[in-house]
Amino acid sequence: MSSIDHFWAVIPAGGAGTRLWPLSRSSAPKFLHDLSGSGRTLLQETRDRLAPLAEDRIVVVTGEPHREAVLAQLTELAADSVVAEPAPRDSMAAIGLAAALLERRDPDAVMGSFAADHVVADPEAFRDAVRRAVAAAREDWLVTLGIEPTFPSSAFGYVHVGDPLPGLEGASAVREFVEKPSVATAEAYLATGSYRWNAGMFVVRPTVLLDLLHQWHPEFADALRAIAAEPARLAELWPTLPKIAVDHAVAEPAADAGRVAVVPSSFPWEDIGDFDALATLLSRGQDEAGPVVLGDPSMVLSVDSTGLVVPSAGRVVAVVGLDDVVVVDTPDALLVTTRARAQEVKQVVAALKDGGRDQLT
Amino acid sequence: MSSIDHFWAVIPAGGAGTRLWPLSRSSAPKFLHDLSGSGRTLLQETRDRLAPLAEDRIVVVTGEPHREAVLAQLTELAADSVVAEPAPRDSMAAIGLAAALLERRDPDAVMGSFAADHVVADPEAFRDAVRRAVAAAREDWLVTLGIEPTFPSSAFGYVHVGDPLPGLEGASAVREFVEKPSVATAEAYLATGSYRWNAGMFVVRPTVLLDLLHQWHPEFADALRAIAAEPARLAELWPTLPKIAVDHAVAEPAADAGRVAVVPSSFPWEDIGDFDALATLLSRGQDEAGPVVLGDPSMVLSVDSTGLVVPSAGRVVAVVGLDDVVVVDTPDALLVTTRARAQEVKQVVAALKDGGRDQLT
Q1: What is the pLDDT of residue B12?
Q2: Residue B323 domain-assigned?
Q3: Would you indicate the residue range of the signal peptide (chains A, B) (predicted)?
Q4: Are both B60 and B140 inside the same structural domain?
Q5: Contact B350/A at CB under 8 A
Q6: Domain range holding B224?
Q7: Which of A60, A119, A311, B71 has the most CB atoms within 10 Å of its CB?
Q8: What pLDDT does residue A103 have?
């Protein structure tokens, strides 16, 4: 399969991953880590997944503090392929800035935006979906990939899939985006067969995205285009941009205006939000007794235990008589919890911040 | 209170403390550790408890590999106060060797043997009991201290207390020693009020001990006296000594022969066999929520958890949503278990040995 002419992959690399502490830190967020045991970090896997489509047309948008780490992990990138945000201003600013830069750089560009910290198990199926999305984006649709739900999650937003778009294979109109529902509502969605998870994957011509933004937030779009025209104004204009997600700023109103398409997709996808999700991901296809291990299995000794052990400090970790335990060992901090309580790890991070120990967060 | 003339404190310092791994190691057994958070190790506390009675008449019997560590912890000891066993040969050999050496050194000696790794909460009450035991030992009794049972333990042997000994305040004859009973039997013992725990604390004139040993194991007693007479023969004779506990070799048959007395005592006593016992010890008198901490409490962050945390590697330990958990953090090994499963830690040590990782045990 060949690459796609004028296709640009935009990789927003942000988010602290607080619930993955102490592995993920503000100084080294989730996307910089190998969470699949593949030997590649989430950021590197995201790049690997997109390179066959985009070749070297890859733009990473990340926070200024992570610029060097991103370049160190993606050695094939040119330095000007990493756009550093002076401060985090949510996803519309990050993706909009990339769009404004690409609009000037390549008038025929179609961009696809894919978060740096997602896991996709079948890259070929992913790329097939992107190809279909690009075809629809060339017809001026704002296109989202609709992930096939595997359970009635209340943690994701949903896309309500409408009628197929004539002449655009595998693409349908979007009726609406719906916010994270209750589990009961999610079960009803799944029963209809016409709802998909919204994974925040958008494929669109940069000009279309900015023009849509201009409809509802004209000053926002103007500011982004002003920065692209005159990059020296970044520091001045960036702090004036609204902090808003691309979903709220553009995707939802554009769907109501009949401008959004969805490519329903069936590749396995994970947003590894916490250690419970990570344990699920790593235990897939493993029938062995004992906890799953992210790292060197010879460093873990288990007696009658299950769960997840991350021995990343080079020390032996012994677990005796605990079910669904989570042990994450790092050189300066250790976490012990259970899969069921994994969400509450953020309380530890909050306590560390409150206690003035930010260097550990 | 003054010291006791000719009283010699013998401290057998042996035992690996396998169930306290990874804190306790064969290279640094239990008695070398501060398990009470007092700032003093169990060995140092044992010495501190005995020094008011024995002054500098203290003899530590330990394995050759631990001789230097013992001297480093007990800086007030003369080098010849530490007797190094060439290899472990159980308690009769260790205590008998000390007896044979003292028999030659001080014909009026009364020795008291107290393990280096026990915890005694009321040292003054302990010393009162020893004083009474010494008075009986001067009358040629083999005297044991009988610990008041606090629950029907099946982990300790018991002493059956007989009639008071006329003229020896607080001392009674021993009817018999009984091996570790079932919990039901232990309950029956406690109901009678005439059974005490056998903590292996013996007070006796060295000559009486060796003469008793000679009755049942004449060659054993002869060999010990030969070593004392000619220390150069230690390496030759030591490997010939039977591996037997002092209880079986002497105390039990001597009790049957009506030669053993008991001083029933009420000082709080603990043999910290595992992390469950350690948690019990440390939580005494603590009403705070959260796990008990052996070490610096500021290194432990707890969310809705109880149990025991030992942060001895200088790293932050966070525990979230686990009841009765045990987390022991050391620089090269980490243990996570529960109080209920703490006994099974020895399986980890066995697995490490099997895997050729003896340096971690």
Answers
A1: 97
A2: yes
A3: none
A4: yes
A5: no
A6: 7-271
A7: A60
A8: 98
Nearest to B318 among A315, A331, A348 (CB): A348
What is the per-residue pLDDT for A188?
97
Q: Do both B243 and B318 map to the same domain? A: no
Q: What CATH number should be reported for the domain holding residue A210?
A: 3.90.550.10
> Is residue A1 situated within a structural domain?
no
- What are the two backbone dihedrals, phi and then psi, of residue A308, each rounded to the nearest 5 degrees? -140, 130
CA distance, residue A87 to nearest chain B CA (Å): 29
| Cβ–Cβ below 8 Å for B337 and A344 | no
**Both tokens assigned to B106:** 């001080």
* B280 and B352 both lie in a single domain: yes
* Contact predicate B50/B133, CB 8 Å: no
Mean pLDDT of B267-273: 90
User: How confident is the model over B178-187, as a mean pLDDT?
Assistant: 95
User: What's the mean pLDDT when you consider all of chain B?
Assistant: 95
Residue where one domain finishes, among candidates B217, B243, B271: B271
- Residue A38 confidence (pLDDT): 87
CA–CA distance, A221 with A207 (Å, rounded to integer): 10
Residues A209 and A100 in one domain: yes
Nearest residue on chain B to A333, alpha-carbon basis: B316
Distance CA A1, CA B86 (A): 74
3-class DSSP state of B359: helix
Among B36-40, B195-199, B287-291, which is the least confidently predicted range?
Answer: B287-291
**Inter-residue contact B345 to B18 (CB < 8 Å):** yes
- pLDDT of A100-121, one tens digit each? 999 999 999 999 999 999 999 8
State the count of interchain CB pairs (< 8 A) between A and B: 118
Give the minimum alpha-carbon distance from B321 to chain A in angstroms, rounded to a whole number. 6
State whether B319 and A337 contact (CB < 8 Å).
yes
Please determine, for residue B286, whether its predicted confidence score (pLDDT) is greater than 80. no
Contact with chain B for residue A276, Cβ under 8 A: no
What is the pLDDT confidence band of residue B36, given thresholds at 50, 70 and 90?
A: confident
Residue B333 has its nearest CB partner, among A318, A335, A351, at: A318
Report the 3 state secondary structure along B18-47. HHHCCCCCCCCCHHHCCCCCCCCCHHHHHH
- Do residues A211 and A266 both lie within one domain? yes
pLDDT at B37 over 90: no
Domain membership flag for residue A318: yes
Report the pLDDT value the prediction gives residue A177, as an integer from 0 to 100.
96
**Does residue B211 have a pLDDT over 70?**
yes
Write down the pLDDT at residue B92. 97
Are B348 and A317 a contacting pair at CB < 8 A?
A: no
Residue in A97, A86, A102 with CA at minimum distance from that of residue A9: A102
User: Are residue B109 and residue B164 in the same domain, yes or no?
Assistant: yes
Which of A226, A242, A271 terminates a domain? The answer is A271
Nearest to B146 by CA among B189, B90, B110: B189
B231 in a structural domain: yes
Q: What's residue A1's pLDDT?
A: 65
Spatial contact of A154 and A197, defined as CB atoms under 8 Å apart: no
Secondary structure of B42-90 in HEC code, one letter for each residue: HHHHHHHHHHHHHCCCEEEEEEHHHHHHHHHHCCCCCHHHEEEECCCCH
* A192 and A159 Cβ atoms separated by less than 8 Å: no
Nearest CA in chain B to A345: B320
Do residues B266 and B159 share a domain? Answer: yes
B327 plus B211 within the same structural domain: no
B303 with A348: Cβ contact below 8 A: yes
Averaged over B278-282, what is the pLDDT? 92
**Low pLDDT (below 70) residues in chain A:** 1, 287
